[in-house]
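Posting here for the record, re: alpha-L-arabinofuranose.
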Amino acid sequence: VFAAVTIDIDPARPGAVINKNIYGQFAEHLGTGIYEGMWVGPGSRIPNIRGWRRDVVGALKELRVPLVRWPGGCFADEYHWKDGIGPRDKRPVKVNTNWGGVEESNAVGTHEFFDLAEMLGADTYVSGNLGTGSPQEMSEWIEYMTSDSKSTLAELRRKNGRAKPFKVDFFGVGNESWGCGGNMTPEYYVNLYNNYETFLKAPAQYRPKIVAGGGHTNNRWTDVLSKGLKGRTAGISYHYYTIPTGNWDVKGSATGFPEAQWMSTLVNALKIDTSIRENVAALEKNDPEKKIGFLIDEWGTWYDVEKGTNAGFLFQQNTLRDAVVAALHFNIFHAHADRVTMTNIAQMVNVLQAMILTDKDQMLLTPTYHAYKMYVPFQDATSLPVTLRDNVEYRVGAASIPMISASAARARDGKLYLAIVNTNPNEASDVAVNVAGQNVSGASGQVLTAAAMDAHNTFQQKDAIKPAPFKAKAANGTLRLKIPAKAVLVVAVES
Ligand code: AHR
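Prediction output follows.
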């Protein structure tokens, strides 16, 4: 018998469209996430386009980043947008109180952010300041960005170099209002949200979708907010970080970890599924018409910072384990595509589970970057139900998770794509794939794996881990795949 596991795909019962924004990114004014990592300024000797690093922008373009969230995070609730417009040498220097207490030059502001998003061809998600701002400040930012009138603020935008309104796709009202955003209860926040949201006015064609800042750990914020929101709200956000030990004081190392921490990391990553189910249940109860999305606008691995780096910069290496964590999340997001219509990994460059790491003029692509790139065909694809039979458990001590995770979708190019993760770092898996009503002939795509659980790229060895081509044949209409240990695979299934 060939197969240990059988995957049945049913193209006749398509599910929801996988919103491309599930593959969104998050870029905060934090550490070297923006300054150094992406923004070097137009006068830098590092090649740049109007201040944005040419190498990093090029790599992000190839990733087809659909959406970028900016400027925070915790930073957003202390950000005053007027500090970031006008001539750069006249902008006030502030202290980044959340992240290392370093100086914030305000060199990157509204115009620079939209320049980046437009270069990437990405939608935009701007986080507004609820914690230390005011309804007036927030509504004026919206007016500045979106008004096509001759108002003083719209004219100021023109004077600063932008004739037409910016395209603000999403606008968030506060961030982590239960914590760094103001230590509020959900009952208090929902009143404030309704107050602020009332004044977020924009011409219909430029009006962003408004996002209410939700909770973490359980569904209480989603429940209270979805009962109490009065305005037009596109979604309620949620944050979920994967920490190997589950202990914020000693989170675990990004590299050199034991197998027990490979396992605990994957166990914790998979808990996002329970979080989604619980929160979606609250939404189904309070919003049965499905007007409100469940938007996971921060997620990813969070380890102890690399030795010798600023603890406030959240700089960590990124290994094969991170790629596996990302792919497990993607497969779960696909299964919940009707409500989960946006997510943003934390964060894009040099911070937490990053796509790209930089060192001066050097840049490397992380395993997480490769996972995102392999999953590009799933952007705006139609999810297809997959059933796994005889899935075995991968065990370490008392911990146990399914060895195989999978998802499938019909992409916009008409092809059927299948993604498979083998969570077991020690054993390959034989997988048989049947597509109902189709005589499958083969499959081709890419596989990402390596000899070590913590395989990663360094500035000395930038391609230590990268995807390899993968091809397989079918026998009697059934596809036979050998999935290596600790691997992420994405293939187009051919009939
Ligand atoms: O992503 C880093 C931080 O994590 C964000 O600023 C905050 O929202 C969360 O606590």
